[in-house]
Amino acid sequence: MADKLYDLVVIGGGPGGYVAAIRAAQLGMTTACVEGRGSLGGTCLNVGCIPSKALLQSSELFAEARDHLKDHGVVLPKVELDLATMMGRKNKIVSDLTGGIEFLLKKNKVDYVKGWGSIPRAGEVAVASDDGGTQTLKTQKILIATGSESTPLPGVATDEKQIVTSTGALDLSDPPKKMVVIGAGVIGLELGSVWSRLGSEVTVIEFLDRVLPGMDGEICKQAKRVFSKQGLKFKLNSKVTQATADDAGVTLTVEPAKGGAAEELRADIVLVSIGRRPFTVGLGLQELGVVMDNRGVIQVDASYQTSVPGIYAIGDCVPGPMLAHKAEEDGVVAAEIMAGQSGHVDYNLVPGVVYTWPEVAAVGRTEESLKADGIDYRVGKFPFSANSRARANGDTDGFVKILAETRNDRVLGVHILGPLAGDIIAEAVTVMEFGGCAEDIARTCHAHPGVGEAVKEAALAVDGRAIHI
Question: Is 155 part of a structural domain of the chain?
């Protein structure tokens, strides 16, 4: 490999990196993918999206069996938690999927180079392996796809034992009696839900005045009510200024966000989940003169090229939502542009999903942002309590909300709190990609009975003609 001249070397084997490498190879480019973790898939597959969804599913089934199966006439004498088996299932899913990616690279003739990559100069990638060996790959183009890491919180040092990031929270040996989650965003609510269902007393502390900051305000309020009903406790408008661990647990100092008297909270486990930041340590970007902002986000042009010719970047390292599916889209478009094709990713139409139960999904504008910009719009809403399939399934919490521009009915935003929200949001994304209207959804036949009918009814409600409410 050291004597081989590549068309493209991708640094990072996560969703953005491995997808970019495969697409580049499909387009005829000689490609290598460098990854130092020891397994492909990045944070998403190894310690993020996939293991968390496995535990969410398992914990949902545990709670269903313990609390709700009797409502269906299924009576169990006793439901017990076997956490070791649950974790084993999660680990096998991760192993199977990461192994599958290695197969896909081989199938597409992408060289998988194990080791940590850095860029001594444009046209070269130095790879340091864990055994101390090094090699240099020569290449026409370099693509940085190194993803992100958990953002640290001043005064709260993580050890992945008592004070953990999402990585440690996915691998606890027992449900903690008391757990404090710092941050009421996607990661905090998903993992807080897992351990709450498995028996932990979970308190979520959030600096702002709402859960899921950045999402539609009405959805946030309803989501908090639902999650509170499920057992999560919330301390909003609060900040953690210090954490001290001892043999008996962790003591947190919590203050009002706007100032005031501090209080102490005790927990067995503390999860720090206040967001993520680009992971670019050790790449040598500053020495090369690659332009980044004060948060470490790499600045790129429309072709994903950095300020240094021949060096490109995608995914969590560049502006836009820090989401695996966004990184995949970046990777495909970047590879196609390198091959002489064209393309773009509309970051305004990247759906976001929270895999709690019920799920939360959103795409496009919120009511708050439309009001701030003075855009005249209409709202259509439909509750899942009036949806036949949701009632049959016993999943009636939440609603669908569609925002459409008044002058032309164009769909500007869709927000869903409810069953399978992450799946049914895809219809809205497709309509919005084509510049569609609420009437287009309202005039589309939806299968009955299905939870997707709530989207059609919300579209009808934009014009004040919903049928089932």
Answer: no
Do 232 and 102 belong to one domain? no
Together in a domain, 417 and 439: yes
Residue 363: band (very low, low, confident or very high) from pLDDT cuts 50, 70, 90:
very high
The domain boundary, picked from 314, 347, 380, lies at: 347
Instruction: Give 27-40 pLDDT, tens digit per residue.
Output: 999 999 999 999 99
Which of 325, 415, 448, 468 is the catalytic position?
Answer: 448
pTM score above 0.85: yes
CATH number of the domain enclosing 314: 3.50.50.60
CB 242 within 8 A of CB 235: no
Whether residues 57 and 198 fall in one domain: no
309 within some domain: yes
What is the predicted pLDDT for the residue at 130? 85
| Shared-domain flag, residues 199 and 247 | yes
Residue 330 is predicted with a pLDDT of 98
Residues recorded for the chain: 469
Q: Which of the 8 DSSP states describes residue 43?
A: H
The H-assigned helical ranges of 339-452 are 367-372, 388-393, 421-433, 438-442
Locate 352 and state its tokens: 């976001």
**What is the separation of C-alpha 146 from the centre of its chain, rounded to a whole number of angstroms?**
16
Domain boundary residue, one of 240, 274, 308 = 274
The answer to whether residue 2 scores a pLDDT higher than 80 is no
Q: Is the peptide bond before 358 cis (omega within 30 degrees of 0)?
A: yes
Amino acid at 348: N
The b-or-e profile of 201-223 (16+ CB within 10 A means b, else e) is: bbbbbbebebbbeebbebbbebb
Tokens of 341: 């094709």
- Band of pLDDT at residue 132, cut at 50, 70 and 90: confident
User: Tokens in use for 85?
Assistant: 């088996």
User: Which residue range(s) make up the domain with 374?
Assistant: 358-462
Task: Yes or no: say if 414 and 219 are a contact pair by the CB < 8 Å rule.
Answer: no
CATH number for the domain harbouring residue 435: 3.30.390.30
Residue 72 annotated in active site = no
Helix (H) or strand (E) holding 311: strand 311-313
